Amino acid sequence: MTEQQIQQQYQMARERYASLGVDTDKAIATLEHTPISLHCWQTDDVMGFESNAGLSGGIQTTGNYPGRARTIDEVRKDLEFVKSLLAGTQRVNLHEIYGDFGGHFVDRNQVETMHFQSWMDWAKSVRMSLDFNSTSFGHPKSGNLTLANPDPAIRQFWIEHTKRCRHIANDLGKAQGDPCIMNIWVHDGLKDITVERRRYRELLAASLDEILSEELPHMKSCVEAKLFGIGLESFTVGSMDFYEGYCATRKVIYTLDTGHYEPTENVADKVSSLLLYVPELMLHVSRPIRWDSDHVTIMNDQTLDLFKEIVRAEALHRAHIGLDYFDASINRIGAYIIGTRATQKCLLQALLEPLDILRKYEDNGQGFERLALLEEMKSLPFGAVYDYFNFKNNVPVGEEFIAAVQQYEKEVTLKR
Ligand code: RNT
Ligand code: ZN
User: Fold this and answer.
1) Whose C-alpha lies nearest to ligand 1, atom 2?
2) Which end of the chain, N or C, is surrounded by fewer C-beta atoms within 10 Å?
3) What is the pTM of this model?
4) 178 catalytic, yes or no?
């Protein structure tokens, strides 16, 4: 597309949306300023740099597409390239196992901020803020139970790990002058019929209470619920009910991963209920296929509905947006661009809804009119607005990014 075509199409779209009282310039500005946190683990199939223990804890990557990042420098290089193709604001979401351990084995109960100093320097140089995650999986002490383990020694090991991670997150937040969002997801669960469910849940709540008791002003903690993990199919300690209650009573941020619910469950519908009782949401925008398969996020109804709900609930300022998928079967860099662009497109469409009119119809009981307008919105030229957003920010428009990713693959990732 030529520059002139992009501009012309945007002007037409702008007028069309304006006729419904929607300000496309404002929507673009909001899109530009809403951060999306890029999960570092898509670069290397969730391997990290602690050891070669491989993935455990109920999650799995599938595929062996060439070009996986093998070093911290490769992860950073990949993320920089990803950022160069994206408009808007990105953050980088680190897991503890991505620390810069300088070739030494640093156990999870020994990790310190210094292991993330080079990440902080890098993040500053590329002007991105960092988010953080404690890591319960891929470790000899991971087993089936970590923070909910009845063995006090193992439980204490993971409590210490998670406390240290909060301190690291606080230091990252302080250095970047912007709170670091730290997610706690533990895979704790059991494969088969479990009779002591209550005991494990009591232990998890007690561990979390101890971990979260410390006030750390430069970070925010969130806890992630899940339906089940591979090999842990019968029982998940940190289920949705567990964390709903936990977050509501402790005023902790709830992490809503779109892959962590029953396949037919309406994840978007959870937003307005949760936000009545929990302070904020952390979103892990993913795409489940039959199970929590962590496929690349696309612009599907589920993702659109999620962002529409957030905008309709006037809750964008209470939602932290992050991606969470790991596809090792396709170009990993391309997977980031597809997922981030899809997330942006969903948010943009949510921002382009003529909410004043829709609300009025609903209040007046005008069901036909509400449905008709919602249907018409689907074929309005939001694509022209999205193209202009990218054009304005000097990044590839439309499918142009495919060639850019192919070139990076030829020059960089295929040489690995
Ligand atoms: C696992 C959770 C969790 C992980 C990351 C790697 O089911 O979704 O968020 O994907 O911590
Ligand atoms: Zn997740």
Assistant:
1) 185
2) C
3) 0.98
4) no
